[in-house]
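Quick entry between incubations.
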Amino acid sequence: MKTWQASMPSNIALIKYMGKTDHSQNAATNGSCSMTLESFRSTVEIEVVSDAANDRWEPLATDYPLPGGVGDRFLSFFHKLKTAEGLADQSFLIRSGNNFPSDCGLASSASSFASLTMAAEKCFAELKERPVRNATELANISRTGSGSSCRSFFGPWCLWEGETITQMESKMPKLTDFVLVCGSGHKTVSSSEAHRRVANSPLMESRLERIPGRLERSKAAIANGDYDTVREIAWDDMWEMHSLFHTSQPPFFYFSPETIAVLQFVEQAWKRGELKPIATIDAGPNVHLLIPAEQADEFRSLLDKTLGEGRKEGAPIRYLESES
Ligand code: PMV
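Done. Structure below.
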């Protein structure tokens, strides 16, 4: 049986997408930019099946099979894709999996929706005998399944503004992302709900005024390899997004005590001035610390010394690593 496969990476935003002007299309209220996380990937495989009335999903046999399934959003997005191709009556078997643990609190929606879009495109292009569409078109399709997934189509740095999704010019060094796992519990507020709730934060209006200037400064800083400016912008934007959460009605909060401990570690590291990670946090408690790859060994030692033996099972704050 012919199988179509795609594997796409995750990404981490330094200027965050938070808030939507159209929730059904994942149209973002503001522009965002991100770095690709090449080592955190999802894989999706698709097969045509003739003996089933509905599409089915199975976990892929990876090191980290998805125990709880992929959720309705995944299959209903696939349904939308096949309907748009005129293939609504055809049933498919979809397998998917991640190469990173699902209990580590790392969102996999960006990599999994990007992989689903890509695998479906390969499959439909062959079945319908048409060419595969370009990355911009595919990124915009993927965006309608999961907003942040559109940025996984362009790396290592990607800019998403409206329907423009592009690779950014970059002289940034290769970075290693250390993801400090500060809580693996189920999110009390999903990112979809966060996108809705932030609309009523009194800080939203002024954030939207600041974003265009911030995006312009990051474009220039990334293009020039101005690491310190990127680091400062990422810090400001991370705090601003979390402040939206804290000031919306009803307010909500993702930080855990470990999140604060890691942020204090960052503040100390910056003060010492030898290793200055770029720090950012998505809609969850985990902290991403990005450091030039050539400093990764030294940084790992510092992390282990300060926050505990994070690579070991049962460590107080575990961490995972990905290259850009
Ligand atoms: O793509 P979604 O709906 O899961 O949105 C996620 C948004 C953040 O991760 C919080 C920020 C971002 O830009 O990735």
